[in-house]
Structures are given as C-alpha cells and as structure tokens.
Amino acid sequence: MRTQVAIIGGGPSGLLLAQLLHVRGIDSVVLERRTRAHVLSRIRAGVLEQGLMGLLDEAGVGERMHREGFPHDGTLIAYDDQMFRVDFTEHTGRHVMVYGQTEVTRDLYDAREKAGGAIEFNVDDVTVNDADTDRPYVTYRIGDAAKRLDCDFIAGCDGFHGVSRNAIPASVRREYEKVYPFGWLGILSETPPVNDELIYASSSRGFALCSMRNANLSRYYIQCSLSDSPGDWSDANFWDELKRRIPAEQAEALITGPSIEKSIAALRSFVTEPMRWGRLFLCGDAAHIVPPTGAKGLNTAASDVHYLYNALRQFYEEKDAEGIDRYSERALARVWKTERFSWWFSSLMHRYPDQSEFDIKMQRAEIEFLRSSPAAQAAMAQNYVGLPY
Ligand code: RFL
Ligand code: PHB
Question: Which is the closest atom of ligand 1 to the Cα of 13?
Fold first, then answer.
C-alpha cells in the first residue's frame, strides 16, 4: 500500500492531522493499535483553546462543538474558604470551550468515516523504517497478516507509550522529564456541575478540581497518592474528600451521585527534542506530556498538528520545504511555554510531600498575589486561553 502521509496513532492528534490533510486533498492512512470503541472509552481532556476550535472548524468538524460545547469566559481559583475569578475575556478578549476530548475524537472518527478515510485498527508491531531517506515506510501486522505502507512522510501521533519517539536514534534525541510525587484521582458522575465555571482549589489536604462535560455530567478530580488505586476510593470517600478541599459554600451546594468512571493519572512534565528526524515528525503526547493542571495536553497536541499540517500543505501545494525544515523548532518553542505554564500552575496548587512551612507560605503568597494583581491575572488568562500559534 502507498500513501502520502502515514499516520501512526488514531487519537486526537492523528485523526485531526488526517482530516486537515484530507480537506487539502493530501492522502493519509491512520494506523491505530486499538479499536475505535477503545479509543472513545478513554476519558481525558475537557477544555479546548481557541486555536483547537479553529482547527476543528478548518477540518470541517466543528459544528457539534459549537452547538453542544460550553464557552467559558473565566475560571475560579479557590484556596481554603476563599475564592476569586480570573476573567479570560476581560484580559484577552477570548474564551475557552468546554467540550470533551471523547466528543472531539468521535466527531473526527465520524468525519473520517464519511470521507472514506483509511484507518487500520488493531495494528501490531508498527515499525518506522528508513525515516532518514526519501523513501520511508511503515511495517505492521494485523492478526497474522504482515503489511507495509510506503509513504512520503511519517507522522508519529502514537502518544507517550507509542513507538515513534524511539525510532529517532538515541544519539540525536534528548529527553527532559519531571515526575510529580502525586496523582489525580478523577471521577465522572451524572450530576449537575457544582458551578458553571471550573474551580481549581488549593487546600491543606491537597488540590481539587471541579470540572464538567455538560449540564448533567460532572468531572471532579482530587490530588491523591501515587500508591493509591481507584479501587481504594469508594464514591462516598471521594465525595467527602472533595468537599473538604473546596470552599464550604460550594461543598454545601455539591450534588453527589454514583461515579460512572474512576481513574488515576500520574502527573508528568516531559519533552523530547528534536520533534523531527528526516521524514518522521512527532506530534502530541508522542513528543511531550504536561501535568493536567491548566488543561494543556490536548491543546498542545493541536498546536503541533497546526505546524505539521501547514508544513505538509506548504510542501505539497507550494513545493516549499521551509515549514518541514522548521517544524521542530516552531513546535518546540510553543511546547516549552505551555510546559512552563502547566508546571507553574501545578506547583502553585498542589501539596508536596516534602513541603516546608516556608514553601506553603510562598504558595499562599503567590495565590494572593494572583488574586490582587490584574497583571498576574492577565498572564494567567493569556496562557489559559492559549498562546498564539
Ligand atoms: P493519545 O490520545 O495518547 O493517542 C495516541 C494514539 O496512538 C495509539 N497508539 C498506537 N497506534 C499504533 N501503533 C502503536 N505502537 C501505538 N501506540 C499507541 C493509541 O492507542 C492512541 O489511540 O495522543 P494524542 O493524539 O497526541 O493526544 C494527546 C491527548 O490525548 C493528551 O494530551 C490529553 O488527553 C492529556 N490529558 C489531558 N489533557 C488535557 O488537556 N486535559 C485533561 O484533562 C487531560 N486529562 C490526559 C488526561 C491524559 C491522560 N493519560 C495520557 C493517561 C487524563 C489522562 C488519564
Ligand atoms: C477536565 O475537565 O477533565 C479537566 C479540565 C481542566 C483541567 C484538567 C482536566 O485543567
């Protein structure tokens, strides 16, 4: 089989890239290790930046997001029993959209299906070959059948545990990592959200986040120990702990119910450089991870897709390789800024096991500075709604 762009990974990065290329008449094949149902069962991001909204529109898949998503003009920051609001629209003239990654991915799968886009599911042993030549190809297996996909370019969109990153020789690859000493325990419940905007809460018992998917579907998180497993937390214990970490008024208003999903995510900051090797390009979680505080994971994947899609478009339509040559440099410049924001917001809001009394005072002073300073709020709002591409 032959295509122009072989895309490894059918998560949001791979599907968005495939759909954008399709709109420009550029052919691709997506290779996904799991089934569509499995990919759609993962509960992940919930907040979209305007850049991602624009890409979904450009890909022709933004209609349901505009109809069913919830524009948010600000967010609440709570500490102990106090709370203040950071107004995104006032500081940046922009807003974010609450619309789940699951829905984005579903819209993209539907669009690929409608367009007759090639997606191979249940692929195993995916291997990147000859990426440093003009004739790269990908080999893989479906069941007992060995397959080969010849292409012009390979997009490694296969997430943090994929194979693409390791196809770049260790001698040219450099990795930067910070692992945080806690995780997030998240639940999804069919209950109305406690508030119409997100609440990021710092408390002496640890961080909590009140988020949502729609008017009757809430997403809540609490900071937990890395040794916890979801089974250790009954729903009742989760709700009790959440209530202790948010201001009393919100705790009283909280409507609880059975969880329909419960999972723990570890928190990590990670970047690999470069994001291109020959004709292989890394995109999204395959190249970088952020802790979820600030909702930047999916949005940073989208900014990579923006740079890569435009580079490939420039190559095919204008016969110009400038975008391809500068992909890694452009993507990484923005990646590092979102890494900084996610690290800063995570460091500000969580309790650390080895924190001293002084460290806690510093966090408190910084939150109070954020509360009192329009300049600090503007900086936060600018990062939260998304830095320009
Ligand atoms: P994905 O979504 O991991 O998709 C990669 C796809 O590649 C497939 N794959 C392979 N396919 C073929 N061959 C192989 N060898 C393969 N290896 C893997 C996988 O099956 C998968 O379908 O990466 P992508 O597309 O770059 O998208 C990135 C986002 O998914 C990610 O940044 C966010 O979900 C991160 N993230 C969150 N981001 C936010 O902005 N807000 C959140 O609230 C948030 N919560 C989360 C998250 C990530 C989590 N992870 C990774 C466990 C919560 C969790 C639990
Ligand atoms: C979510 O709704 O899952 C969510 C929202 C904001 C974050 C992280 C996760 O910062």
Answer: 25
Average of per-residue pLDDT across 304-312: 98
> For 138-154, what is the mean pLDDT?
98
Single-letter amino acid code for the residue at 12: P
* Residue 166 pLDDT grade (very low, low, confident, very high; cuts 50, 70, 90): very high
Q: Is 335:296 a contact under the CB 8 Å cutoff?
A: no
Residue whose tokens read 């900086």: 379
* Percentage of the chain exceeding pLDDT 70: 100
Q: Whose CA is nearest to atom 17 of ligand 1?
A: 162
CA count, 13 A, side-chain hemisphere, 158:
27
User: Is the CB–ligand 2 distance for residue 295 below 6 Å?
Assistant: yes
Using one digit for the tens of pLDDT, what is the confidence trace for 314-333?
A: 999 999 999 999 999 999 99
* pLDDT tens profile 27-81: 999 999 999 999 999 888 899 999 999 999 999 999 999 999 999 999 999 998 9
Superfamily of domain 182-267+353-385, CATH level 4: D-Amino Acid Oxidase, subunit A, domain 2 (3.30.9.10)
Alpha helix segments (H runs only) across the chain: 12-23, 36-40, 50-58, 63-68, 88-92, 101-114, 235-245, 248-253, 297-318, 322-349, 357-372, 374-385
Instruction: Tell me, in angstroms, the distance from the centre of ligand 1 to residue 82's CA.
Output: 34
DSSP 8-state assignment for residue 2 = B
* Domains of the chain by residue range: 5-77+97-177+268-345, 182-267+353-385
Q: How far is the CA of 159 from the centre of ligand 1 (A)?
A: 5
The structural architecture, per CATH, of the domain 5-77+97-177+268-345 is 3-Layer(bba) Sandwich (3.50)
pLDDT at 108 over 90: yes
Q: Of the ligands numbered here, which is closest to the C-alpha atom of 77?
A: 2
CB 11 within 8 A of CB 159: yes
Smallest CA separation from ligand 2 atom 5, residue: 46
Rounded to a whole number of angstroms, the CA Rg of the chain reads 21
Bin 245: left if φ > 0, else alpha if -120 < ψ < 50, else beta.
alpha
